Amino acid sequence: MTEYYFDSDPAAGTWETFEYDEDTGNVTIRKYADVQPALDYNKSFHLDSDGKGKDMWLAASIPDTIALKWLREYGVNAWRADHWPAVKRLLEDPEWRHLRPTSFRL
Questions:
Q1: With contact defined as beta carbons under 8 Å apart, do 85 and 69 qualify?
Q2: Fewer Cβ neighbours under 10 Å: the N or C end of the chain?
Q3: Residue 57 DSSP code
Q4: Total-model pTM
Q5: Are 84 and 70 in contact (CB under 8 A)?
Q6: Measuring CA to CA, which residue among 69, 63, 67 is closest to residue 30?
Q7: What is the mean pLDDT of residues 7-16?
Q8: Mean pLDDT confidence for 79-99
């Protein structure tokens, strides 16, 4: 099988590829993203600020591709209020610490 370029979104830093398996008839579309700019921003923000705004604090910056990964792998929808306990648990996990530009407790 050969993987072909399908689409991209330069503003989001994402691209997609398309693959067709002639033997099985399966189609696979893969989405890739460069989340490093978001992680770098969070790291620099962590060093430069406490995250406090006038009315609220910045708790996290979650790239869309990470939110999609959470949905697929953990069943957690980062954009649904009723999933907040699971989102909070993931954001407090050391594996995802770079999504949080500050270290206050959620």
A1: no
A2: N
A3: B
A4: 0.59
A5: no
A6: 69
A7: 79
A8: 92
Q: pLDDT higher for 13 or 73?
A: 73
Rg (CA), the chain: 17
Q: Kindly state the tokens that stand for 9.
A: 């979104």
How confident is the model over 16-52, as pLDDT tens digits? 898 999 899 999 988 888 878 777 776 776 555 555 5
For 86, the 3-state DSSP assignment is helix
Token pair belonging to 100: 């949080």
**51: helix, coil or strand?**
coil
Burial label for 81, CB within 10 Å (0-12, 13-18, 19+), is exposed
Q: How far apart are CA 46 and CA 74, in angstroms?
A: 27
Strand pairing category for 3-9 and 27-33 = unpaired
d(CA 4, CA 32): 13
Residue 67 and residue 30: Cα distance in Å, rounded?
15
